[in-house]
Amino acid sequence: MMKLQKYAFWIFLAYLAIAYLYPAFGIIAIICMLAPVLIAPFKGRFWCGNFCPRGSFYDHVLSRFSPQKTIPAFFRTQGFRIFMVMFIMTVFTVQMFQARGDLDAMGMVFVRLIVITTLVGIVFGFLWHHRTWCSFCPMGTMASWFGKRKKPLAVESSCVNCKLCVKACPFNLEPYSAKGSADGFGHADCLKCEACVNACPKKALSF
Known about the structure:
Elements: H1 2-7, H2 9-21, H3 30-43, H4 46-50, H5 53-60, H6 78-99, H7 103-127, H8 138-146, E1 154-155, H9 164-168, H10 195-199, E2 205-206
Antiparallel strand pairs: 1-2
Helix pairs in contact: 2-5, 3-8, 6-7, 6-8
């Protein structure tokens, strides 16, 4: 799955280019709005870590220029994340209403929203971590609500608490903390990206 995610950012760039020429094409972005939430009840934030084209852009392009600092705790607070969901959804709804069924205008609503939020993510990526935006992305937040504890990560007793999984995790989550737990590591924001699995020297992690 990681191989697909590695190149998904080209879909993101192609989308922007095509939507610039044919604004109505922008509506196709509805897939990336609905998919994370629809998949979440079965696999948690699986879409975010394996299919999201913008996430791929952050992982494979922006990460090269990011200082990889810890994401500010404020961005992870429930209050801020709820605010972002309400704010983005309100802006989206108002602009779609103003488009009044015009396909080009509706497409541009998606494009503007994606461009502006991506630029915010790029700025934050240069300041802190390349996945900072994802910590409070409205769709990712809703996916975390609906997909809590889905597809947990198994942490075997062979784990030696080296914490390399924490360094590898895009959100600096702590899979090692569930060592030996029968329920595994089921943090709602786990992206199921397998970065921690690949980083573990003892092969103690698996989905």
